[in-house]
Amino acid sequence: MKSEYKTLGTSQNSLIKKIRSSEIFYNYKHNLPGIIGSVIFVVTILIAIIGPFFTPQNPYNLVDISLSNSYLPPAWVEGGTIRFLLGTDGQGRDILSAIIYGSRLSLFISITAMILSCTFGILAGLIAGYYGGKIESILMRITDIQLSFPATLLAIFIMTVFGRGVDKVIVALVLVGWVRYARTVRGEVLREKTREYVDASKTIGLFDRAIMFKHILPNTLTPVVVLSTIQVGTFILTEATLSFLGVGVEITKPSLGLLVKNGFDVMFSGCWWISVFPGLYIMIIVFGINLLGDFLRDELNPKLK
Amino acid sequence: MLKLVIKRLFQMVLVLLIVSLIVFILSSMIGDPVSLMVPENASPEEVQAAREYLGLDKPIHVQYLIFMRDVVKGNFGRSYRYYQPAMKVILERIPATLEIVFLSVLITGVLSVLFGVYAGAYPKRSSSKTIMTFSIIGISLPSFWLGMMMIFIFSIYFGWLPPSGRGQLGTFLGIKSSLFTLNGLKHLILPAITLSLANIATLIRLIRAGMQETLKQDYIKYARSKGVSQRDVLYKHALPNTLIPVITIFGLQVGELIAFTTITETVFAWPGIGKLLIDSIYSVDKPIIVSYLMIVSAMFVMINFLVDITYIIIDPRVKIK
Amino acid sequence: MGELLIVKNLKTYFKTFKGLVKSVDGVDLTLDRGETLGIVGESGGGKSVTGFSIIKLIEEPGEIVDGQIIFEGEDLVNKSEKQMEEIRGKEISMIFQDPMTALNPILSIKKQIDEALQLHTNMNKSERLHAGIELLRSVGIPNPEVRIESFPHELSGGMRQRVIIAIAMATNPKLIIADEPTTALDVTIQAQILKLMKELVEKNNNSLILITHNLAVVSEMTDKVMVMYCGKVMERGSTQTIIRSSSHPYTRGLLSSIPRFRSNRKRLDTIEGIVPNMYDLPKGCYFAPRCKYRKPLCETEQPHMTEITKDHFVYCHFPLTDGDNSK
């Protein structure tokens, strides 16, 4: 019994081997966009984690900010100070600090939503793909209908019903985002189902659950990794859009999107720095994620080899 | 083929029914219309009367049926904010939104094909790599921020274009639109570009990948052996084959466009249904929200349907089946 | 002399990540008007690349690095892409191996024939349609007026190849290059197609280069033969001479592996060994490792072309001169 189990185990090992094989690392070293993307991503995460210890001010703490500092321009413009490098907003919040804290919030929301939608989506896709039949067709109907409706609009509507708040934004993102995972995983499962090792597992009496999780799942992970990377970027933009439209996070703890909104309200008064810098930072983060995602997609796609 | 069309129509209706159900359920969770209708110091009897008047005392499934009956009649209730039938309010604003969408589709189609075909045919040139870098930047930009940047640069700094609002209307072939005046176009350009950029970027990537794939095919080499020029090889042989799968994505994009008009119209203070939706969300104007969703859902379903039909028409391999 | 095509020392190399592949490494050939030349060899031997090189359809990472392709007195190697576009489809046409993938799936047959005619003739639209229908008739397609409106996937393999032949003949080119025209077809159809090609080419006095791995086909169809192996020409001469008394061990090997009806042999002869890795070719004669006549010199030194008769050349240190292939 044991020895047969071991040979079936090779179905998992192929993925791990794939990742650790030197070909990917070799290509990585020569792929400039991939390197830039991952560096940007790692740096932004570091900034989000450690940054708050170095900022001149905690923009979420009402005690720290003072209206006397409001609407100061960036340091290099006349009227600005070094202390508030990128200027301040209408409440006297330092824009640089606000960006660092805001990025923390935006990344937290997006990564959490990604993990959750990934989990639910994978489960749904595995079950649908493996069991087939009615379960599968119902699931596919649902995903079809949901996918034909623009995600952003759906998220706006969900938030309209729920009201503002970080937790609600995460739920909305998950509700919108699980579909892609489900479809992708189901497609992969359908492909894997026909492979010999599945029949072999069934013959030796392995439980469905064991087959699904221990054998099929690892082999379907490649597109999931690519999808997850890109989803974080998509979620960051969606959350920013929701916050900008006023149906995202609460006003007291602004995410990057909400910071841009604050700048929007005073757009014509000349205080450009309030919206330019936060938005620019959003772009940089998502740009890095997309570069990384592209690299992963090209590397992990067997068709292009 | 007729069978296919009818099957699709049935699916359309089914989807619309499901959407209407979801819209109904969720909208019943938004706000309490009774409290908006009666004065603060109303007596319990008056509140009850208002409740009955609005039909809110009836069981939920009856309410849904009444709702559907009204929907079919085109009656979505009266807007709380505008005191007019919701349908009328929306219909008045649709032309404005359609203007930006139309211009955006035009710009997107032309630019993404031009750049996508070029980058796909000559992927190693540095100009192609530049195009690709810009397209990655394009999909990384938050569109509301892009809109604001465009206003900062072209309107505030250079002063070339107006910062917001819709321009003058002109008439052409009996249609009134701001597309037909110079002033109108000046107002349209920035919003249309803002709306297009993400889609252009996505389509460039798709078309480029598709072209690279297609250009490897035998029939391309065969066409060349017949002496077909490079330009004709690209545009008459490769592009049509590449576009077939791209059209499905483009159809979905038009749906996304309508969603993104909410953002663009908010940034540019454009008087279309997108801005109307956002304003209505703020003021919890339920009839408008509900009717917006129903109308927009109907539009998506229609667009998806059209895309499917187009697919069937242009790909001769599908026709026979 | 009326020579239509003279190829001298043609070299087409491919620069890949794994190394340099010398697909065509010093090929010479001549072809007169109305002559048919067969280029024979195993897969990867360089025959298709030779064909594509003549019409200059070599794409990256390949490149014609040396040699001359003198067509009607002019060297094609020096010609620009624009100039080649005038020649392709008009003076030189090609017949591709797989008619399903060669025809554009979303364009009708009518459009694809029309394109060739529009590019290279002055006919107007209705003249082209008429000519297209007649072309289809001449290649044996029944009901051509109706068939011309079809799409490639609606036709059978044999019919598609007839369409390709029709397009190739449309402008009455001086030279037709047929790259394994029957390999993708059913065995039963192959003979029909070959017969059709032979008839058309004889009638119009076109020159034909027939690329195939099948020596049996060549013996029926061609005036001259060129045998290639790993990018080099092993032997060339008139078909009669080569079939009856070839001098190269490789050619002998190919000939004896053709099944023959009345032979007494119980087993087919095969050529021992496998084709070498193109990234790692042998030092001496490329065929030496598989040659049953090999001598030490063959393994260390490259042979050179030896002239046996005026129109029979062999690339071998020790050409077989016993003049009889039945041994």
Summarize the model shown.
The complex is a heterotrimer of chains A (305), B (321) and C (327). Chain B has helices at residues 2-27, 33-37, 44-53, 60-73, 86-121, 126-140, 143-157, 182-215, 218-225, 230-268, 273-282, 286-314, 316-319, and strands at residues 170-172, 175-177.
SSE layout and pairing:
The complex is a heterotrimer of chains A (305), B (321) and C (327).
Chain A: H1 2-20, H2 22-30, H3 32-50, H4 95-131, H5 133-147, H6 151-162, H7 166-193, H8 196-203, H9 208-244, H10 256-265, H11 273-300
Helix pairs in contact in A: 1-9, 3-4, 3-11, 4-5, 4-7, 4-9, 4-11, 5-7, 6-7, 7-9, 8-9, 9-10, 9-11, 10-11
Chain B: H1 2-27, H2 33-37, H3 44-53, H4 60-73, H5 86-121, H6 126-140, H7 143-157, E1 170-172, E2 175-177, H8 182-215, H9 218-225, H10 230-268, H11 273-282, H12 286-314, H13 316-319
Antiparallel strand pairs in B: 1-2
Helix pairs in contact in B: 1-12, 5-6, 5-8, 5-10, 5-12, 6-8, 7-8, 7-10, 8-10, 9-10, 10-11, 10-12, 11-12
Chain C: E1 3-16, E2 19-32, E3 36-40, H1 47-54, E4 62-71, E5 74-75, H2 81-87, E6 92-95, H3 99-102, H4 109-120, H5 125-138, H6 144-147, H7 157-169, E7 175-179, H8 187-204, E8 207-212, H9 215-221, E9 224-229, E10 232-238, H10 239-245, H11 249-256, H12 296-300, E11 305-309, E12 312-315
Parallel strand pairs in C: 3-8, 3-9, 6-7, 7-8
Antiparallel strand pairs in C: 1-2, 1-4, 4-5, 9-10, 10-12, 11-12
Helix pairs in contact in C: 4-5, 5-7, 7-8
Descriptive report:
The complex is a heterotrimer of chains A (305), B (321) and C (327). Chain A has 305 residues and is mostly helical. Chain A has eleven helices and no strands. Chain A has helices spanning 2-20, 22-30, 32-50, 95-131, 133-147, 151-162, 166-193, 196-203, 208-244, 256-265, 273-300. Chain B is mainly α. Chain B has a two-stranded antiparallel ribbon with strand order 1-2. The longest helix of chain B has 39 residues, at 230-268. The N and C termini of chain B lie close together (8 Å). The mean pLDDT of chain B is 84. Chain C is of the alpha/beta class. The two termini of chain C are 37 Å apart. The A-B interface holds A 145, 147-153, 156-158, 160-161, 233, 237, 240-241, 244-247, 257, 260, 263-264, 267-268, 272, 275-276, 279-280, 282-283, 286-287, 289-291, 294 and B 15, 18-19, 26, 29-30, 136-137, 139-145, 148-149, 151-152, 156, 163, 252, 255-256, 258-260, 262-263, 266-267, 277-278, 281-282, 289, 293, 296-297, 300-301, 304.
